[in-house]
Amino acid sequence: MSQILMTLIWYLMVTAAGYLTLPLAFRFLKFLPDRGFTFSRSLGLLLWGYIFWLLTTFGLLQNNAGGVLFGLILLAGVSAFFMRGGWFEFKDWFGTQRRLILTAESLFLIAYLSWTVVRAANPEIIYTEKPMELAFINAILRSPSFPPFDPWLAGYAISYYYFGYVIVAMLIHLSGVPSSIGFNLGIAMWFGLTALAAYGVLFNLLSGILSTNKPAESNRKAVGWALLAPLFILIVSNLSGLLDILHARGIFWQRNPQGVLESSFWKWLGIQEFDQPPPEPLSWTPKRTYWLWWRGSRVLQDFNLLNQREEVIDEFPFFSYLLADMHPHVLGMPFVLLAAGLALNFYFSFKKQSPPEPSVLNWLKDPHIWLSALIFGGLSFLNTWDFPIYLGLFAGVYVFYRYLHNGWGWQRVGDFVFVAITVGILGILLYLPFYLGFSSQAGGFLPSLIFHTRGVHFWVMFAPLLLPILFWLLLQGGGYLRPGLRWGVLLGSAIVAAGWILMLIASKVIELAGLIGQTWMTAADTNLARMGQTLTSLSGLFFIKQGGSGTELFQAALLRRISAPGTWLTLMIILIFVFATIVTLRRLYGFSLASENDPVRSLPEEDQNRGFVLLLILLGAGLTLAPEFFYLQDDFGTRMNTIFKFYFQTWILWGIAAAYSSAILLQRFHDGRGGVVKIVWVILMACSLIYPGVMLPAKTGLLRGQPVSLTLDGKAYLQRDEPDEWQAFQFLWEMPLGNVVEAVGPQYNPQFARVATHAGQPGLLGWEGHEIQWRGTAREMGSRRVDIETLYQTSDWLRAREIIQQYGIRYIYIGPVERSAYRVSENKFSANLGLLFANSNVRIYEVPDALVEKTP
Amino acid sequence: MMKKNSFSLNGEKVLYGLILIIGLALRLIQLGKLPLSDEEARLALQAFGLASGESSPFFNPDGGYLITTTGLFFIFSKSEFLARLIPALAGTLICLIPLAFQRLLGRKTALIAAFGLALDGGWLAASRQAGSHTWAVLFLLAVIWAVSSRRWKMAGIFSGLLLLGGVEVWKGLIPLGVAIGVYNLWFRWESFAWNDVWLSFRNNWKEFLTWAVGALLVLGSLFLILPTGWSAMGGGLISYLRGWNNPSGVSVGMILTAMLIYQPISTLFGLIASLRQIKKSVSLELFLTIWSFFALIHCFLYPAREVLDVLWVSLPLLGLAARLLSSLLRFNFDQRIAALIYGVVVLIFLMFTSQNIMRLFSPGRVAVNTQPEIIAILAALLFVIISVILIGWGWSTRVAGYGVTWGLLVWLMLFWLSGSFHAAGLGENPETNPFRRGWFISEADLLKDTIGDLSELNVRSRTGLDVMAIGLDQPAMRWFAREFTNFKFENTFQPQIQSSIVLTGSSEGVVFGENYRGQDFHWQVQPIWDLMTAKEWMQWAIFKIAPLENKMIFLWARESLFPGSEISNEVQP
User: Fold this and answer.
1) Per the UniProt record, which residue ranges are transmembrane (chain B) (predicted)?
2) Domains of chain A (ranges, CATH numbers)
3) pLDDT tens-place string over residues A70-86
4) Fewer CB near the last or first residue (10 Å), C or N of chain B?
């Protein structure tokens, strides 16, 4: 099958899934102006994946193409069931929305195809975490049943949020493409799906407000302006691209008398690599390093008390897609936008009906709630971090309307908890089999005492989104800010202050716990002593990560935050503006509620939509403010992952808000202020598009005017560079499932775990560091590393046989990596085992069933 | 009149009864004689596993076959006969399907078609192999019948069962769908009364759908015992679609050859009928022509084609041929005796021709001079041609036409029945049957006897000796192994091997620690179709003989198993 045909088949499959689910979207997302059309593909994939996964988990379907197709047929059946009686409405809607449909379809197709070309220009599945992702996909493809086996820890099931991989594997199953091609098609497909869903959210927000008097014209305008959402979310990037070219050109660098380049600006900026002089001769084209594009995802810098650098990840979508790691945060993108669409639908539903009273029974009777639970629960299985975030948005919508209706009271907190718990528990129950086999490394929240984001880094990261949002918040008019400003200031300041206070208290508690632990350690009671030891070590670990303890640490933490207040001040201002506007809306709403009996329609359309945008901004502000004070404890012990996951979602939420703000600003303001805004906006766009403009050619070789060889096969490099190994992997792929043993080495090194990854066989041990991350402990790995080393090196067949039997090893792989990692004693294998495969570099021995069966 | 009608009806019943008996007999006689090929064993093993309570991770797409055969295996013993019983029964029922279309085809046509289906080589071959071909045809025809008679409940159930027919269903459904579409678009729809059917469907689609889904879910999972069978339904379509990218290696020429050699009557007369209808433009013939055309085109285009796919072409062609034959087999004109006599004369000359052709291509023939046979063949054919012209010109065109047609028909029937006998696997050289899927398993019985003898000698049971097959993990071997209690499979030759009997696919690299004796067997054979010369093709067409390629296996028996050896004596009491 040619790769062009494969690309087409993937398009057709996902499009078919979308259109088969459209009746369902039409019914359940009926309050959206697009009736869920732009979300139908994401919804279709999610529901299809859910049906397939659940039925396969329960042994009702097989993990093969037949099972996948049956899942789709079942989905079509469910969709048709909900379609009954609504066919003519559906047909009418289709007839009147040709422009929207055509634009959305074109956007999806162009985004998908263009990113297919990008992937084809650099398709290698080799670096960063791509091996892990391919290993998951291959394991899912080859698992006879679910949960799928862990490819890097034979004998165990995957302990990770793997739903996205199930969906990709599902498409690979059905299309029959090799997984190494499916991987790249998957990335391109997700790019297209994200573009479409982002477009959908903004279209639904803009529809009806761009030309208030003429709905049809407004709709037509929204079709075009909504394209800003995929632009802001997927293409617009942080300002590292701008900094990169300024740096490369030597801007702000001066030569000292010794002829060495020096710069106080770049030193103050404090971003790694940029604080070093640029390579000469100076040029507008950055040439710092081969991985030039990497720096964009590391503009934030954390330093502990000792000024030791801690890595912080600040990926944004363009970087993620350029990197093309098929990681859960990428796989979740179309679905978090679907969740945002669902929340918007929930929000719009209150235009036509009052918010329902919080009653569990009534809510459970509503099929919309079940669908919501299915979508939000799916987020947890896709990328667990997203689950509470978007559940929060959903609950926030409810609270927002309840607030508008009933005003503020502690009951609103109860409303929030009610929605979050009801939908959250349902969401968990619907995916219960996943949770039964999932163990997480998360271990609560820790105060982020010394670590904080400097304002300049925050602005380098978010300026392209922050500026349009701030302009919009400011230029929406004093009428929206002034009436609620007092409350806004109060709430905004209180939240930031609360963050400070809670962080300090929590840090003090940890310090105190350490001290108490020390006294308990000497206690006669062994349990108390053990507890004391635990407390002391936990407290000690926390302060080690902070780089110190005591008064010095607390003082330094406060001093650093006060001397670099940009982030929390920015966020405080945003909070003030948002709260002020919300309070104003309530006043306007309350006024209209008192004056008219039809409260919903009395509020102008734009003001209603404004509320949702404010919620997006508020949630984004919350996600960026939270890691200023607290972070999730994981195996890294720093806020690296918290920043990564929270900032990434903030980019999506603020991306929509920024696109909305831009559309309003560019549409509405035609006076002097508008002119300034437009100029600033154009400059800002230009600056934020430098990164894609420079890094895309840098990574892929495209757009350089030179021929680039294109292939979608992520393993083509292997076939070219390591043909013997490639041949061995292909051979093993065809063999029955069996535990395979290969050399163990450091994580992120693609030479290790390569057999299990590419051959789709459960490896005895892959990247240890990753196993610890997935399981939160190294317990399951036991002594595998040592045993594997012994197996290869010992000349004692009895000892080797013991290890083989202990782990039920079926295939013993001896390739160049094994020979360089160990002093392989091969005689014992050749004398006692059958040689299954051999070429000039690789030999694979097979353990006979009789030998494995002796495993106790 | 009443009496005549009654007699006619009874006679018809008797004939259909006869068809049923012949059809059943031809399908069941020695059904389990030939060993299962890899393709058959793959299915049978899965049913065997399911019947034994194993949880099968992956269902083959042939859900209907699997589920029913699992039931059979569960109740009865596991044998080749039972593995092929469901296709045989479905094939037998297909013979009676024309009865259901009697009104549409005409009584005589239906009867001829039923005989054709009962005796045709292709249909016999399909009925005598484990697979879903006959299942798919049976239920597709059943759906067409139920839909045309507006029995929506039945149509639903049959549709559900049809979808359990695996990949074969789609090979039939798609050309049929295209044919219906083309017929609808370009020709008359009304003439088939499809408008009424469509209107009825619109009112009853819920009933249809409910029963279809119900049948699919309930029967497709063997009454919810094997829910994974649901995946098999989707698997059929997937396998079909993948087939567009996976060439099977069966050439278009092979398809056409099989049609001409094994189905000469339906092919020849069907073709004539379809050409004739262009002039007459009769709607049924027109539709059957379009259907057979698209079925043939599909056969040509579909890369994963197999010879059995010609069944989808021969089905409408058989209908066309039956229509034509029913008009030719008329005996109520004046000069029928003369036509009959002339027909016998033609047949004699054709038989003479056949005899000479057989002599000409006889495999044992050593004579270089072929002139006498060629002259005899040409003279006989010339006589037939001249006699037709003379009788038609000088006496009666009707006598000439009917006479030569009947003579030719009988001659073709003899050729056809001989082919059918071979296709059914009842004649000699079953390995050259082109309808057989996969390699023919050749010396399984000999292998079984050899192992059995050694086993009996050493452990007093014909199946108890420990056997290890290395590098032979194929379905046919797995099926073969099921009867042995201690039969293991390995992919690689282990130096420390100690099994009493070792089977290997090659003698190279086989080095035992102890003394073993070896013997080779022809395990799998198949004709070398691609390398056959024109003469070999003729020999195959006439005698069903063809040059073969084969895959050997080697049986290695430990020296101590044989009488007289020291260890052997020790283990014997």
Assistant:
1) 14-32, 81-101, 107-126, 133-149, 169-187, 208-230, 250-272, 284-304, 310-329, 336-354, 374-396, 408-427
2) 3-113+185-231+335-434 (no CATH), 237-282 (no CATH), 441-688 (no CATH), 722-852 (3.40.50)
3) 999 999 999 988 887 77
4) C
